[in-house]
Amino acid sequence: MASVESVIEGREVVICAGSGGVGKTTTSAAIALGMAARGKKVCVLTIDPAKRLADSLGLEELGNEATKVDPKLLEAAGVDTENGGELWAMMLDAKETFDALVARHAEDAEARDRVLNNRIYQQISGALAGSQEYMAMEKLFELHSEGRFDLLVLDTPPSRNALDFLDAPTRLTQFIEGKSLQIFIKPTGLAARVASRGTGVVLSVLKRLVGFDLLADLSEFFTAFSGMIDGFQDRAHRVNSLLSDEQTSFLIICGPQGEPIEEAVFFHSKLIENKMHFGGAVVNRVRYRLGTRQVKVKDLAARLDEELKDEDLSGRMARNLSEYDVLAVRDQKNIEQLTKALNGEPVIRIPYLDTDVHDIAGLCEINRYLFTEEEERVDLATS
Amino acid sequence: MCPIRLNAFIPDFLDKRLLFVTGKGGVGKTTVAMALGIRAAMEGKRTIVCEVASTENASRLFAQSEVGFREVELANDLWAISINPDEAMREYVLLQLKVKAMRDLLFRSRMFTYLAAATPGLSELVTIGKIWELAQLDRKVKHGRKYDLVIVDAPATGHGISFLQTPRTFAAIARVGPVHNQAKEMEQMITDHEQTGSVIVSLPEEMPVNETARLEGELRDDIGISVDHVIMNALYPETFSPADIKKIEKLGKSEDPELRAASRAAVSLATRTAAQHEQLARLREMISADISTLPFIFKPELDLKSARQLAEEVA
Predict the structure, then answer these.
(1) Cβ distance of B177 and A210 shorter than 8 Å
(2) Which of A46, A69, A370, B95 is deepest in the core (most CB within 10 A)?
(3) Residue A178's closest chain B neighbor by CA?
């Protein structure tokens, strides 16, 4: 099975998707670092990296703009930067990106301020369904258009479900464009009727249900957005087309347990359905099988005791390997299932390392596995 | 249920009426929420565990028990429900508008459909509304069962904070009227430390520990909810002492691959256990809530049986 380098070869955008807690941020950073070490100008876009990882990259005061990681830090960890490679990173701020988007699409300063100052916008713009995901794509699109980097690696926002990411533009545009807004803002729409204190039957039922004030605020909010519909719509389509472009590749990051594996399979089928380019899957924290055969606790304990002359310790060791092996067998089965479902597309297994990864040296450790061929990977993991 | 050896301590947060189980994604929130539910039911409390999810991302634990948007009895005194915002919205309208003609008019109205879909935060509001309704002694739904305890498997952090903030947001936006009043009532319940509490589920690793410390602050200061406990999940056993490891390491160069494997697995476990204890100590420094631990379960998949096993350990 291939190295991650061959998986993303020729791509300009790599999107790392997966559910929460599977090591997405770490994997994204590792890929970016690995490609920088191979002479590329790479930027990793992340939402909320671990504090220590951010610290180790020197990114403490990072805002919504790309910042270059000091080459000295990379050199200190043994990463060669003589070949012109650069590692950049940025932390996304969904609210700030949303504000900037509003500013860009507003007809004039007054229209902009009407949205930015709207109480509903202020209260909810950060939490709007799909807004974080959409804003991540938006920033990705912006950076890609600027053409400053050879490769962009996007660590998708944490969510329970990887699919949330793909759905985000649809959900957000459903809200911004389309029928929902128009029904409020057309001359006979809700907003006009609320404004003129109309008396329609539906309106009066709605008033009774949610109260007039809230209805009025909502109408104002939707109306304030109305001037920007075209701009948003156009932008959303272009963002969407970058996602399905040849230059873009999706990697699914997952863990070896049943639930994340099932989700990875489902996400893959959705990608194919949406005609997006699937690069491969990275399975983190895999317990490789250590022994060569099924663990028989009694036999193994006896063999260990011959060497150690310590019956109690030998018993504990044998039971421990047996417990480990239960999980290793599960991982193996789940990954076989994943490989089958992906029709032979690359599946890269990163072993469950003894220590947590939270610095450049740790990322380099991961890259020994990411940037190598399968055979070597197995040797490394089991030796 | 099988005969059990219960931990003598009954966690006092189980005496509340409403308990939110929060934490970063992937820390085992659903399993812990279920374990707490089982434990409360064992103590004779009529308990319901709620999952907050749309239909397509219901967790396995719930899906396997075929729990949907209805209260399903899983065991003696233990129920579960998966709260889907669309269904919660529908139920809300049914409860609000007593006149059938009015409801029908609204459900048929495109304007309502769009308003419901487009209003930011509305899904979260009706979901919390349903949770609130479940926790009422005087249930709003017909023939509603009375529960002693409602346990919520809350959305992952990030989303979790804004989720719990929704009632306050709506109470502020709506100023007056029915939504304002209901949101206010929900907010009052969430911030009532006598009735409502929260536990944070964490893992003994760098990122989850940092996030737990941050989350504790946000829950206390931004939401105003009581943080009763942190549950450190999936702790490995301390099977090997440093003296053991010295002996074991010698086997690392053995000719026999099985002995090498046993040695490698033992050293890995000892290394991970030590790292976990460092993280546990870090967390103790960083937070003020009490911490208890749950063991790692060496099983291919965690199911209701594993949750039952954990239920006995919760203290």
Answers:
(1) yes
(2) A46
(3) B114
- Which chain B positions have a beta carbon within 8 Å of A304's beta carbon? 251, 259, 262
B268, A353 contact by CB (below 8 A): no
The pTM for the full model equals 0.90
ipTM of the complex: 0.88
Q: In what order do the strands lie in the sheet with A278-286?
A: A67-68, A86-91, A41-46, A151-155, A13-17, A248-254, A278-286, A347-351
CA distance A218 to A106: 18
* The token pair that represents B192 in the structure block: 């009532």
Chain A residues inside the 8 Å CB shell of B207: 25, 50, 358
Read off the pLDDT of residues A301-349 as tens digits, 9 standing for 90 and up: 999 999 999 999 999 999 999 999 999 999 999 999 999 999 989 999 9
| Residue among A339, A360, A199 at smallest CA distance from A280 | A339
Residue range A242-279, pLDDT digits in tens = 988 999 999 999 999 998 898 899 889 989 988 889 99
Cross-chain residue pair A127–B120, CB shorter than 8 Å: yes
B150: which strand partners?
Answer: B18, B48
Strands (E), chain B: 18-22, 47-52, 72-75, 78-83, 149-153, 196-202, 227-235, 290-295
Second-level CATH architecture of B12-238+289-313: 3-Layer(aba) Sandwich (3.40)
Distance from CA of A244 to the nearest CA of B (A): 23
Q: Which residues of A touch B240 (CB under 8 A)?
A: 313, 316, 320
Give the β-pairing of A86-91 and A41-46. Answer: parallel
- A205/B102 Cβ within 8 A: yes
Nearest CA in chain A to B103: A205
Chain A / chain B CB contacts < 8 angstroms: 216
> Given an 8 Å threshold on Cβ–Cβ distance, is A174 in contact with B210?
no
Structural domain spans, chain B: 12-238+289-313
